[in-house]
C-alpha cells in the first residue's frame, strides 16, 4: 500500500472496554490503514494513560439534553478535523453526523448496527421514542455504503425492515488468544476452593439476567457470583443482594480493559450469558460475552434465545435454560456446579470451538468488503 488509506471510527462508548472497536482498530492498523477512533466515556470512572484513541469525557449528571448536546458538539468538532476514505458509525447515535460528514468528504460510509436500536429493551414501553429512532435510522441507513450486524437474525431483519441489500454479518467475536496470567478472584475475595465462581461480564443494566441470578443465589449452594463490569443499574443490584441477604455471595469487580479481560474471565468456573426476551433486539441477541467465555475456556450457561442456543448446543460448550422458569434456573446452575466431569468436558469443547469462533477468521468477511471498495 503506497499511501495509507484513512479510516475514521466514531463510537458513543469507551473503546478500551469495547471489544468490537478494539479488534476492528487493531485489524485495520495491521492491514496498513491510518485509523482514527473518536469515542466518548460516559460511565466508567477508570482513567487510562493510553493515547491510542480520542476519548471525550461526557457526563449524564446534568440531564439527557445536555448529555446529547455535549456529545454532538464534541463529535462534530472531532470529525471536522478528519478527511478519511471510510467512516464507520459504530452505533445509531453517531450515524447522522457520520453520514453528513462522510458525504461532504465524498467518503465511503459503514454503519455498524450493533442492535435493532428502535427495539432495544429500554425502549419497549416508549412507543414515541421508538418511532423517532426508527425514522432517524430509516433515513440515514439508506445513505450508507455498507451495513454491518452482529448476527444473521439482525441482518435479515434490517434487510426486510428497511428494504436493504447491502447488509453483512460480522459477529462480535474475540481474538484467538490464551490468558497471559489468571487473575485470582479467590484470593481477592477470599473465596473457598469448594465454591464455584459464576461470572457475568458486561454492562450492568436490566434485561441481562442479573437480578434473576441474584434471586437464585438464595437457593444455590456452593457458589458465588462475580460481576465484571459497570453500568447504570449497579447500585440497584448491590441493594437487591443486600435485601435478599446474599451480599456475601455477590462481588462487583468493576470494569476491565479489553486487553486484560481474558485473564479475569479465565479464572471463573461458569460464565453466564442470560439475555432476557424483552424486545426484538434482545430476542436476536448474540452477545460477545458468550464468545469471550468460550475463548477463555469457561463453560457457559446461556438463555434459550435462538442464536445463543444454537452456538451453545452446536459446540457443546454448556447448558441452555429458560429464564422464565425460576426452578429450572436454580436446578440447572446447581447441577452444573455439582458435576465436575461435565465441566471438564465443556472446557475441552470450548478449547475446540475457540479455534473456529475467533476474530481473526470473522474479520476476513469485513476485510474482503473494504478491499473491494477502497
UniProtKB/TrEMBL annotation:
What's in the keyword line of the UniProt record? Glycosyltransferase, Transferase
Keyword Iron found:
no
Enzyme nomenclature, EC number: 2.4.-.-
Q: Supply the InterPro entries for this chain.
A: Glyco_trans_1 (IPR001296)
Q: What is this protein called?
A: Glycosyltransferase
Organism expressing this protein natively: Stygiobacter electus
- Fetch the Pfam families from UniProt: Glycos_transf_1
* PANTHER family in the record: GLYCOSYLTRANSFERASE (PTHR12526), TEICHURONIC ACID BIOSYNTHESIS GLYCOSYLTRANSFERASE TUAH-RELATED (PTHR12526:SF629)
What would be an example GO MF term here? glycosyltransferase activity
Residue span(s) of domain Glycosyl transferase family: 184-353
Q: Does the keyword Transferase apply?
A: yes
